[in-house]
Amino acid sequence: MADAVMEPEVLVIGAGPAGLTAATYLARFRRPVLVADGGEPRANWIPVSHNTPGFPEGLTGRDMLGRMRAQAEEYGAVIEAGRAENLRPVEDGFEAELNGRTVRVRAVLLASGLQDHHPDLPGVDPAIRRSLVRICPICDGFEATGKRVAVIGNSDLGIREAAFLRTYSDEVTLFHIGPPEALTCRSELDRLGVTLLEGSFGGVTLEGDRVRAISWGGTERAFDFLYSALGTTPNCKLARSLGARLAEDGRLEVDLHQLTSVPGLYAAGDVVRGLNQIAVATAEAAVAATAIHNLLRQRDGMTVRD
Ligand SMILES: Cc1cc2nc3c(=O)[nH]c(=O)nc-3n(C[C@H](O)[C@H](O)[C@H](O)COP(=O)(O)OP(=O)(O)OC[C@H]3O[C@@H](n4cnc5c(N)ncnc54)[C@H](O)[C@@H]3O)c2cc1C
Q1: Which of 180, 199, 232, 273 could form a disulfide with 247 if both were Cys (CB 3.0 to 4.6 A apart)?
Q2: Residue 145 falls within a domain, yes or no?
């Protein structure tokens, strides 16, 4: 077990799978680490994950986060509810505000995730928690095998997700709710075997454990699941304010060690450009935590000199 908690050396921003994994690694490297937990991680929405390595029977997001949190705390990581604000560089590190006080650290890991753009439908939140409305075909497309699937989108992302879901289903319908010109590759839909419906969106009726009907211009169609392909907004305001380089999709660019373009500022998980998956978030967090530990060892003259 780690010694009694000292001033944190590392601030981890975000207590989702990425932040909690990094906290475990850093604590096991005997680095005093403080995790700012802004609440409601995306992982908390997962009804049951079937692709998380090591859990063949599946597990809920809540269960996963509980296990990860317990593991980090076991080794002395401090997890504090609250949002880190006003991150700024200072000599040899960073300062940030957390719950009205200033936290000074030597390095920061941003594991702040992203916001999903949920469809504007009544009852959408409970429907996501029940897996009727879904966000991520890579996560749970397998469970849509042989089902009637609808995708709601407002851009070419809708076409891409509908095409992806054809791996699993012969009955995929895309509801395009954006302007017509936002679909630039609509000619692909026939070839891909995806039905396109456009116009103003009528609504969704949830009955029992199915999306029973989506009314569209007066007609009704029944689906087993509705996938939302309305995009996301990365939570990278703090990194942006430090001038960190962003990719075209607004997420953070990092190097092979998860270092952003700002020295000492690392990033992992959904806030980073790449695949939004737990396995990826935890792998990136392991890489980032190890890089941070090695950076601090180097600064302290504790690495072998060539
Ligand atoms: C419905 C659903 C089902 C999914 N199913 C699967 C699945 O089966 N398999 C799979 O691999 N992936 C799945 N995913 C994706 C998975 O949840 C994400 O890839 C994963 O949660 C990313 O982890 P993260 O730590 O980067 O971000 P998150 O889990 O989103 O955590 C980020 C945290 O950072 C916090 N934060 C942001 N800013 C601040 C701040 N300034 N201060 C403090 N805290 C802050 C946020 O509040 C949040 O708590 C699913 C996602 C959803 C929505």
Answers
A1: 273
A2: yes
Instruction: For residue 42, report the distance from its CA to the centre of ligand 1, in Å.
Output: 3
Task: Give the least confident one: 24-38, 42-56, 82-96, 122-136.
Answer: 122-136
In a domain, 3, yes or no: no
- What's the CA-to-centroid distance between 185 and ligand 1, angstroms? 30
Q: Please report which confidence band the pLDDT of residue 212 belongs to, taking 50, 70 and 90 as the band edges.
A: low
Q: DSSP 3-state assignment of 207?
A: strand
278 and 209, same domain (yes or no):
no
Q: Which residue's CA is minimally distant from atom 42 of ligand 1?
A: 83
CA distance 230 to 232: 7
Is residue 42 lining ligand 1, measured as CB closer than 6 Å? yes
If asked whether residues 165 and 220 sit together in one domain, one would say yes
In this structure, are 108 and 14 located in the same domain? yes
What CATH number does residue 88 fall under? Answer: 3.50.50.60
Beta carbon of 281 within 6 Å of any ligand 1 atom: yes
The amino acid sitting at 234 is: P
Cα distance between residue 300 and residue 293, in whole Å? 11
Report d(CA 130, CA 43) in Å as an integer. 14
Distance 88 CA to ligand 1 centre (A): 24
Taking residue 187's Cβ as centre, other Cβ atoms within 10 Å add up to 8
Ligand 1: centre distance to CA 61 (Å): 9
Look up the domain containing 180 and give its range. 118-229
Tell how far the Cα of 112 is from the centroid of ligand 1, in angstroms.
Answer: 8
Q: Give me the pLDDT at residue 282, please.
A: 98
In a domain? residue 304:
no
- Closest atom, ligand 1, to C-alpha of 82: 43
Take atom 6 of ligand 1 and give the residue whose Cα is closest: 139
> Which residue, of 170, 194, 229, is where some domain finishes?
229
**How large a percentage of the chain has pLDDT more than 70?**
93
Between CA 133 and CA 125 the distance in angstroms is 8
